């Protein structure tokens, strides 16, 4: 069907495509008429809906699919985020996709004339009037949500049982390994005992009767060294330095996460991160070079002035926006800003003096060479340690056991990551839907608070 022919069937916000013997839905043509939010596809020959149906027609609010031959619905039907009315009367549906429970705006649902499963049929009801169809929508969504929760619980239980089996297998392997090690130690001790007995018997035979009369003087064992006193452990909790490091660690990971989200356009899957990685490395090198140039002694003062001017302009713009809401506050803020300006000038001079002294009196090249030499030494020692451990059979057995645990841990992390991404996508959808209203409310309350504070201060001044 051509676009022009399709537009002729549009009346207001309704598009009537019923009784046309359609076997496929013209998705692209319908999407080209965005004002049509109520689509009637009833009394056709539709057997299924394509996967691009829901994403392409997410704007529709009413969908009539009655009297077709539909056997299933697409799993991404939750993309019809604005759908309020869904008619599936007289089809061949036996079940519904779990994602249907994500249609938060669905208020009307008709499933009569379908060979549904008993539990779903009971939830759908008869739908003989408007009220019963509205109740059917609520009950079917609740039924699918319960079924979804049950499936998730079964999945978690299955993963738990698999983990227990893997743990049991790992314990059995570890016990078998311990048994073999014990047998090796016993065999080794037995060989040592046999060797000592052979040496003693040979010594007695060579020395003859003189060895029997030889006297031995008992040498007393040295007294054991006194144990070193243990340092008393403090129970005062974390120090301020520990809290500072924790906060810096959280900020670092937050900045890394925000940067990854920006560079991957929200696609935080391994493929999205791999695609964005070259661009991220390139920009990091550019930023490092710019930072190194800006911190040169001859450029530092100009950099500081540039940053200072940018901060001043940003502060002035923000303050101007506040004063547009509250009126002129300069009589209260000018003394404070003057004092802060003087403090900033003093701190700036002290910083430049300290930086000049450090740049002129410390041999940074020698420090860099010393650090580089230390790093090379540690790297060589690390290679030696790795080579020795690689030849140690016990250590390699422990590594193999750890690999099993790490593989399961990585699988669990993957499952948790997918769940987290799903929850984040739901949160983003909620923010996109509810954010403008919340921001408007916060802006109104902030404006009222500033105005009341101004009135109070002016009253106190009078």
Commentary on this structure:
It is a single chain. By secondary structure, the chain is mostly helical. It folds into four domains: 3-150, Leucine-rich repeat, LRR (right-handed beta-alpha superhelix), CATH 3.80.10.10; 243-294; 301-362, no CATH class; 363-462, no CATH class. Helix content is 67%, strand content 4%. The chain is built from twelve helices and six strands. The protein has helices spanning 3-7, 27-31, 53-56, 118-124, 130-207, 209-213, 240-263, 270-294, 297-326, 330-361, 364-390, 393-461, and strands at 10-11, 14-16, 38-40, 62-64, 85-87, 108-110. Strands 1-2-3-4-5-6 form a six-stranded mixed β-sheet. It is flat, with a radius of gyration of 38 Å. It starts with a helix and ends with a helix.
List the helices and strands and how they pair.
Elements: H1 3-7, E1 10-11, E2 14-16, H2 27-31, E3 38-40, H3 53-56, E4 62-64, E5 85-87, E6 108-110, H4 118-124, H5 130-207, H6 209-213, H7 240-263, H8 270-294, H9 297-326, H10 330-361, H11 364-390, H12 393-461
Parallel strand pairs: 2-3, 3-4, 4-5, 5-6
Antiparallel strand pairs: 1-2
Helix pairs in contact: 4-5, 5-12
Supply the key terms.
flat; 67% helix; LRR_domain-containing; 4 domains; transmembrane; leucine-rich repeat; Leucine-rich repeat, LRR (right-handed beta-alpha superhelix); 462 residues; single chain; 12 helices; membrane
Helix content estimate:
55-70%
Q: What's the β-strand tally?
A: 6
Give Rg in angstroms.
38 Å
Level-2 CATH architecture of the largest domain = Alpha-Beta Horseshoe
- Main sheet? 6 strands, mixed
Distance between the termini: 77 Å
How are helices and strands ordered from N to C?
A: HEEHEHEEEHHHHHHHHH
Number of discrete domains: 4
Tell me the number of helical segments per DSSP (H or I, 4 or more residues long). Answer: 12
Could you name the CATH homologous superfamily of the largest domain?
Ribonuclease Inhibitor
By secondary-structure content and strand pairing, the structural class works out as mainly alpha
| Name of the level-1 CATH class of the largest domain | Alpha Beta
What gross morphology would you assign? flat
Overall pLDDT score: 80
The percentage of residues in β strands lies in under 5%
Order of strands in the sheet with most strands: 1-2-3-4-5-6
CATH third-tier fold name of the largest domain: Leucine-rich repeat, LRR (right-handed beta-alpha superhelix)
Biased composition (Basic and acidic residues): 155-203
Region (Disordered): 155-215
Pfam family, one: LRR_8
Organism: Halocaridina rubra
